[in-house]
Amino acid sequence: MTDTRRRVKVYTLNEDRQWDDRGTGHVSSAYVERLKGMSLLVRAESDGSLLLESKINPNTAYQKQQDTLIVWSEAENYDLALSFQEKAGCDEIWEKICQVQGKDPSVDITQELIDESEEERFDDMSSPGLELPPCELSRLEEVAELVASSLPSPLRREKLSLALENEGYIRKLLELFRVCEDLENREGLHHLYDIIKGIFLLNRTALFEVMFSEECIMDVIGCLEFDPSLPQPRRHREFLTTTARFKEVIPISDPELRQKIHQTYRVQYIQDMVLPTPSVFEENMLSTLHSFIFFNKVEIVGMLQDDEKFLTELFAQLTDEATDDDKRHELVNFLKEFCAFSQTLQPQNRDAFFKTLSNMGILPALEVILGMDDVQVRGAATDIFSYLVEYNPSMVREFVMQESQQNDDDILLINLIIEHMICDTDPELGGAVQLMGLLRTLVDPENMLATANKTEKTEFLSFFYKHCMHVLSAPLLANTTEEKPSKDDFQTCQLLALIVELLTFCVEHHTYHIKNYIINKDILRRVLVLTASQHAFLALCALRFMRKIIGLKDEFYNRYIMRNFLFEPVVKAFLNNGSRYNLINSAVIEMFEYVRVEDVKSLTAHIIENYWKALEDVDYVQTFKGLKLRYEQQRERQDNPKLDSMRSILRNHRFRRDARTLEDEEEMWFNTDEEDLEDGEAVVPPSDKMKSDEDLMDPISKFMERKKLKDSEEKEVLSGKASLSGRQSPSFKLSFSSSPKPSLSSPPTASLHPGSPGSPSSPGTGARSSPPTAAVTTKVVTLILTDQTMF
């Protein structure tokens, strides 16, 4: 059997002053040659890897806390802690540390914390230990002044702590408190408040263990009730003894566990409610108090988790139909607090915690609880469910998929969650918002697992769209049967907005599942009915949904939109919005602008052919005119396919030169003497020179000569035919104007947009073209692009 005495958890203190669990293993002490000294070694119990290797330095201050903790600092802002399973193991390692440092194992700290000037250090070291005044009523003011004067000095704080601890001074002070309270000695009570508050600021675990013991803690709280700055004392003890009552929903047989729960609650109450706000103190002045609470919670969760009898009884009563409502309410609240405590655990421990709850049947139990009528019970169950989903969504998905093989859709856990979201009675839909966030986490492919034999994404999404999506979309389908929403009140619109937002998320992250569902159920048309809502936030949700679909540039979606004329409600919403410059106006314009910029040809043609007359008067943005231009360019290319081929010819030949010509010119350059060059002429090979006008015009001139010759022949033939028939036959008229007039058959493509084939700024015609050449090129391109057919 494994020796549990040396079993420890290794903790490090992070930047947020929270303890991070670095793993569980077994600790030993041994001489390490590399570190040149005795060291603490912790090897992981899982694989034997080294979790900790720390040399026991003679000057390091080690602290022993709560009988099972050893805490120390390796370097500045790097604190370490070993939490032992058994006190005996802690004592053994503590003796080793004290042996190396030459200290008495009976102390709880091996070094004095010195952080003062040399003079102060000399004065304090030369003086004996701090001597406390006798614990008497008449000396309380003197004690209070002594405590207050010791706080600024770390060394004096340490001496004060040792004096308080060794002389049992705290218990004597608490006896005086009871006397002062009986005598109603208000001055003495105020001094005791200052003394006890100062003792908290000493930040000493050994003192906390005395103050938080069962027989002392209520008197400590009593001392803190008499704040001198308040006219009347607080009533913290009355609250803790009468209002706050501990209920054992399941009897706890372990007295140590019960005492630990009581202690943790009271210490947490002191930290949150009794002590002044932390901003009053120096930074990290109460770090030991935080650590005390943290390790207590870890112990409580561990002890409950290991008590199988307790957990079995808990879940049995939760799911038992004979359990009365009040009892079940207490059980659910206990389980909720239990899960809240688990948030203090580190990831690997939390994983084991939720695995234990899963094995005990927490999800079937939640399914039973969520089916009850009690709103408070359902609310607590929702909080528990959120802990499970946020930490391990795969566990929840696996459960609901297995459950679907045995139960009907109506009683599936995930459908119960959807129904509670839909039926939320809160006017602000706070619960529905929380549940929608959980659903989004469950259907998010980013946190789904994929293995060689199993793909969670495929299986779960298939399950969700088959068994759950119809439940989620039911309110949307029921409310959009007409041209306007059937119910347009604020709460209904909020719910529909949540549903549409989740559908938008599905469009973005799911592929064919949501596409098939939208097209088969005509979901987009139903969603666009919401653009007629009086609530702008709902209309914007609908527009976002459509914009997300268009943004995919999926032709299946585009054909579905065109076939059902789904831009019509968008155009109506835009026109009904009038001249108001608001989010709806901007959202619609941005949608059409996206279609124009991305040149979605099918949607461009559909919009212009069906809605141009409604949109042509909108001139405060150029979006719709730009769409019309795109449409006309498409039509021109369809009607005159030679145009594209002509452009490609021009692009391909504009600067093409015969390779043999280049070779001849380069050879001439190499044969040229430098003396033949004029003064100041750059010595550059011809292939790198700027193109001359003749070089640029060479292929174009040849092309134009052939064109003129062909046209003259055609004119002679056509003129002969015209004299015979008396009618003019179709011909092509070539315009040599450098700035032709735009016409419907000659759209602004020919007017030299930047980047068009004939533009001076287009690629290929930039810095390499001389000004005269650019002018000639412009004329030729214009000539080609402005061919018109005469009838």
What labels describe this entry?
P4R3-like_central_dom, protein phosphatase activator activity, 7-stranded antiparallel sheet, two-stranded antiparallel ribbon, disordered C terminus, 791 residues, alpha+beta, EVH1_PP4R3, PP4R3-like
* Straight-line distance between termini: 105 Å
**Total count of helical runs of at least 4 residues:** 34
Spatial strand sequence of the major β-sheet? 4-3-2-1-7-6-5
* Strand coverage percent: 5-15%
- Rounded to the nearest angstrom, the radius of gyration is 42 Å
Please tally the β strands and state the result: 9
What's the mean pLDDT score?
78
| Overall helicity | 55-70%
Shape: elongated
Q: Residue ranges: pLDDT <50 for 5 or more in a row?
A: 113-127, 279-283, 653-663, 669-697, 717-791
Largest sheet: 7 strands, antiparallel
By helix and strand content, what is the structural category? Answer: alpha+beta
Describe the structure in your own words.
The protein has 791 residues and is an alpha+beta fold. It has 34 helices and 9 strands. It has a 7-stranded antiparallel beta sheet. A two-stranded antiparallel sheet has the order 8-9. The longest helix is centred in the C-terminal third of the chain and has 33 residues, at 693-725.
